[in-house]
Design brief:
single chain; 276 residues; mainly alpha; Cytochrome Bc1 Complex, Chain D, domain 2; two-stranded antiparallel sheet; 12 helices; globular; metal-binding; iron; electron transport
Length: 276
């Protein structure tokens, strides 16, 4: 390639790249409202954004992977924690962990109830933005490194076929990790690893003991029924502890009744009932 050809190639490449850049820019602007739910930006959402900045939340937390990386990414926090949990947590984070043991340093911000509601509305708007998978490996709220909370290692297709198929326990375990929100966002299956929800290790034995005692307040008569009730109506019996409930209402989401089909619920119960 001589100098003239090289010059023409450079000019042509620049023109093509410029056209592609302008086209992608215009296409992005065309989709912004749909991707970001721009029509859902209410006065409360805007106020929540102001609360986020006023309290310097980004000095520790990240949104869309951008921030200080000192504390968890909160891009999808409202998909992992319900409003009741987030409200109670922001009112007094110290109730949710032992600072001397867990070494978490979330300060009590003394935010008003109105501003807490606005901040949750802002975070909920953020959680519904179509971020197209970015960041590719977001920081989890809890437990990515806790035993029993990380995704299982990949298994060869032959082994996977032998252990799953129509096996309701295997299908239930898959749901445990993939439901919305994923059960692993709040529960571990490792003994003693309590997160936003209690560890599910030994669930069957603890459930049987609960049903046999006088403290149970629900309507179940056997362990499978109790597990099913806990998924569908988590406040039927509230597990004691400020981390798990407030004012008699469990922090566990109440959406599984409509988000899981009867077949999926049966599979999930089958898996949970295998946690002896």
């Amino acid at each position: 390639m001589n100098k003239r050809q090289a010059r023409h190639f450079a000019i042509g490449s620049t023109v093509v790249a410029t056209i592609a850049f302008l086209g992608l820019t215009l296409d992005s602007h065309r989709q912004f409202n749909r991707l970001t739910n721009g029509d859902k930006i209410t006065a409360q959402v805007t106020r929540g954004k102001d609360v986020w900045h006023a309290n310097n939340c980004i000095n520790c937390h990240t949104l869309f992977g951008e921030g200080a990386y000192y504390a968890p990414d909160l891009t999808k926090i409202t998909k992992l924690r319900g409003q009741a949990y987030l409200t109670a947590y922001m009112k007094d984070p110290s109730k949710f962990y032992d600072e001397t043991r867990h070494r978490r340093l979330m300060p009590k911000q003394d935010i008003s109830d109105t501003d807490i509601a606005a901040l949750i509305a802002f975070l909920d708007w953020v959680s519904n933005v179509d971020n197209q998978g970015w960041p590719p490996r977001p920081l989890l709220v809890t437990g990515a490194t806790f035993p029993g909370t990380d995704a299982p290692a990949a298994t060869p297709p032959a082994a996977r076929a032998a252990t799953s198929g129509d096996n309701p326990i295997a299908l239930g375990e898959r749901l445990f990790r993939s439901a919305t929100p994923a059960c692993t966002a709040c529960h571990s299956t490792a003994p003693g690893v309590n997160m936003a929800g209690p560890s599910l290790a030994g669930l069957v034995g603890r459930s049987a003991a609960l049903l046999a005692g006088a403290s149970y307040r629900g309507k179940a008569t056997d362990v499978d029924g109790y597990i099913r009730e806990s998924v569908l109506a988590p406040s039927a019996h509230v597990v004691p502890g400020p981390m798990y409930s407030a004012d008699g209402q469990s922090f566990m989401p109440t959406t599984y009744a409509k988000d899981l089909s009867p077949e999926q619920l049966t599979q999930l119960v089958a898996y949970l009932s295998s946690l002896k």
